[in-house]
Every structure is written in structure tokens, then in C-alpha cells.
Amino acid sequence: MTYEFPPSFLWGAATAAYQIEGAWNEDGKGESIWDRFSHTPGKITDGDTGDIACDHYHRFQDDVSLMRSLGLKAYRFSTSWPRVLPGGRGPVNLPGLDFYDRLVDSLLAVNIEPFLTLYHWDLPQALQDEGGWENRTTCYAFADYAALMVKRLGDRVKYWTTFNEPGVVAFDGNLYGQHAPGNKDPKIAYQIVHNLLVAHGLAVQAIRAINSNLQVGIVLDIWNQEPASDAPEDVAVAEQAWQNYQTIFLHPLFRGHYHAAAYAAAGENMPKIQDGDLARIAQKLDYLGINNYSRILYNAQGQVAPVPGSEYTEMGWEVCAPALRRLLNRINQEYRLPPIYITENGAAFKDEVGPNGKIHDARRLDYLKQHFIQVHHAMQDGVDVRGYFVWSLLDNFEWAHGFSKRFGIVRVDYETQERIVKDSGEWYSRVIKSNCVEE
Ligand code: FCB
After folding, report:
1. What is the pLDDT of residues 295-351, one digit of tens each?
2. Most buried residue, 33, 140, 285, 394, by CB count within 10 Å?
3. Does a cis peptide bond (omega within 30 degrees of 0) precede residue 181?
4. Using CA atoms, how far apart are residues 110 and 335, in angstroms rounded to an integer?
5. Of 99, 98, 87, which Cα lies nearest the Cα of 21?
6. Which of 44, 80, 119, 165 to mutate to test the pocket of ligand 1 (most atoms within 8 A of CB)?
7. Which residue from 179, 291, 404 has its CB within 8 A of the most atoms of ligand 1, so it is best to mutate?
8. Closest residue CA from atom 10 of ligand 1
9. Are the C-beta atoms of residues 13 and 419 closer than 8 Å to each other?
10. Tens of pLDDT along 386-412?
């Protein structure tokens, strides 16, 4: 069976600044909350840090050549706020801004569409010292940072994402404490949910005021929450879980108000909302990015894990590609959405380098293939999906797991910084070239 994609389908790969750049304190870059967090003993597996990571800051030209050899049509990356504004606001660090300028020019020179994310979790530590996202002034600083970037790169970068996974920022960073800044406080976490949404709205307004021709969107982490059976008790638990978590962002962004279930879930931690905030948040968007890796299954007792008979990745995430199709159909029916990009999807598996230096990552290749096919099915069902970005181009710093989890379609030898294209990368390259997936 052959699944053909539309000619304009944007095939890409994704990364994030802190996970690949390294050069954490070079050329005037300020400290980020991830520098501070990874330098704090006990926070990251094996004490790893992003100090060097994939050394992309120094090797970006080679990495762009690699992307070109793979035939990528687009590259999703993030800019580091403290690299361009070391204090979060105030004096601009020109060498930092120049770095992104050169990166964008290198991409365009080989016809790769830059798909830029303004915030992939590395808040300037200077702003954290004033309360970070809990403090509403950070929202205004973010809009100013967005404006600065658009003034410099908006003539060449067409796709602008405000936030990557605001839910993970709010909850993993401020309720569960596994991510920077490491808070464990529901009141702070819920206020941050709201402040991130306000910051998003302000940034969209700031971007459009400078250049009304850009494509502006946000990226949400959305995993379908599914019942283990048709039994009403299972369905009710899955539905409740969906409403408590997923609607927190989808509702204000696309319906202009919070869902009643989200208020109930927040309870006494309900954030302070100022007049006009809901209108500020619900800006018209040009696309919605979806990061999807798995699903969560529920029965009447709660989450079912592990799911009997299912395959799991190294992250402990169930492999269930059909759930992606169901998810896309669901949100497409429930909300009036702009076009969708799958902005992240991929899998961590243990890779072994064969005697010939090759990495035969058959499970990752199969994971990608299954998900491409399900995206194709969803498009046939009527969901407007415009592109797909593999997470990730390179093995990289996987947050609290450090370098222990490899998601790349390209292997990185962290001792030598050598890049080796895995079988999945070679296969992906053929998919892009033919614009077809063969089953
Ligand atoms: C997502 C993050 C990305 C990466 C993948 C595995 O939640 O956006 O940076 O860590 O998970």
C-alpha cells in the first residue's frame, strides 16, 4: 500500500535551543532556568547538563548541511531568550541575535523553511529571580522579546510559534518539580497556566503589529485520553481526565473561556484573571502545532499502565499510532481550529552502533511509519494537517533524563560530536523525496 501526501506537505525535523546548542555562557549569553536547574546536583540523570549538548552553536553550519542531505523541507528550532536578552529585558546581546540570523540564512540558502519557536522552556534566570511566569510582568517582557525577534528575523522567517507545550511548563516545572525551575506548588502552577496564555496573546498581538503577513501559532502537547472499553464507567473517567487537562489550553485559545471542569480541577488554586484577559488570549491563529507521542488509557479505576500487550518506548510511553488519528479527529470536531502541524512526534529507543558504524533502529523507523500512516488517514478523514516534524533531528539533552534517552534520527556521539544518520533517518529521507509512505 502506498500513501501519498500533498505536494506542499511540510516534512521537517525539530529541536530546541537548550537541548542542542551548548555554549551556555558564551558570547554574552545570560543564564537560563535550565542552566541553573541542570547545575543543581540531583536534578538530572547522571548529572548531565546542556553546557555543551550537541555543540550546535558552533556546528550549526554542518547541521544545516546534514538537514539538506536528508532533504528536509522545514526545520523547527527554538531561540534562546537569554542568548539574545541576557537579563530577559533591556540590553540586547547582539552576538546572540547574530547567531539566529546566520542560522536562518543558512537554512534559507538550502531551501529549508525555518519554523521558529520563541519559548521552549529556557526562561532567563534574571526573570525567574523576579518570580518568573508567576509574575505578570514576565508576560510583557515576553511580548517585547517576541517583537525584537520579529523585527530582526520577520523578513525571512514566516512561521512563528509563541510557546512550546505551556502545560509542561506550568505543571512539570511548577507542580511536579521535575523541570526547571522545580517548584511544587499548585497555586503557582495554575497562575502560570493563565500567565502563559496571556503572554501568548500579547506576543501574537506584538508580532502582528510588526508584520501582518506572518504565520503565527502555538504548540500544545496533546495525547488522547481514551477509555479502555465502551463501558460507561471507563468512558466517564477518560472524559473527565480529558476535560481537566486538555481543555485548560484548548478552551481559552479556541473558545475564549475556560472549561467548567478546568475551574473545578483548579479548585482553590484558580488563577487571578484580569479584565480583558480572555479576549487577549483568544487571538486568531494561523496554525496549531501538536506534539504527540502516545495516549493515556483509563478504566473506571483510573489510568491503565502498562497496557497489556502494548509496546513501550524507552520513555515508558505506549506505542499506539491509531490514537493519533482519533485525537486529530476529536479536536477537529470539537473546536474551530486553524490548520494543524504535527510539530513533534518520535520515539526514544536504545540504539546500538553496529560493527559497520550503522544504527539499525528498526523500532524507531516502524514507529514513524505507523504515525505517518495515521496522519494520512486523519487527512483523508478531513483534518487539515499541513506538515509533520520528527522529534528529533539529533539525539540531544532530554531534560531531566539528560543524555540517557535518544530520540534522534541522527545519532550524536557526545564524546566526539560525530553525527551518524540512523536507518530511520535514511528512510525518512526517502519518504520526503518520494512524498509517499510505503507499507
Ligand atoms: C516534548 C518536548 C521536547 C522533547 C520531547 C521528547 O515534550 O517538547 O523538547 O523533550 O518531549
Report:
1. 999 999 999 999 999 999 999 999 999 999 999 999 999 999 999 999 999 999 999
2. 33
3. yes
4. 37
5. 99
6. 165
7. 291
8. 398
9. no
10. 999 999 999 999 999 999 999 999 999
Task: Please tell me the CATH code under which domain 2-438 is placed.
Answer: 3.20.20.80
Average pLDDT value for residue range 223-246: 97
Q: Could you read off the pLDDT of 205-220 as tens digits, one per residue?
A: 999 999 999 999 999 9
Report d(CA 137, CA 133) in Å as an integer: 8
Share of the chain above pLDDT 70, in %: 100
Res 263 pLDDT > 90: no
Residue 262: the pLDDT is 86
Query: What is the rounded distance in angstroms from the CA atom of residue 215 to the CA atom of residue 160?
Result: 6
pLDDT cut 90: percent of the chain above it: 99
Q: Which of 163, 368, 389, 398 to mutate to test the pocket of ligand 1 (most atoms within 8 A of CB)?
A: 398
Tell me the CA–centroid distance for residue 168 and ligand 1, in Å.
9
**Mean pLDDT across 20-38:** 99
| Centre of ligand 1 from the C-alpha of residue 232, in Å | 33
- d(CA 270, ligand 1 centre) in Å: 27
Distance 250 CA to ligand 1 centre (A): 19
Q: What is the distance in A from the centroid of ligand 1 to the CA of 274?
A: 31
- Ligand 1 pocket, residues with Cβ under 6 angstroms: 16, 19, 164-165, 168, 221, 291, 344, 391, 398-399, 407
State how far the Cα of 34 lies from the Cα of 16, in Å rounded to an integer.
12
How far CA 62 is from CA of 55, 58, 94, in Å, comes to 11, 9, 23
pLDDT attached to residue 426: 98
Cα 11–chain centre separation:
16
DSSP 241-271: HHHHHTHHHHHHHHHSS--HHHHHHHGGGPP
The span from the CA of 122 to the CA of 37, in Å, is: 10
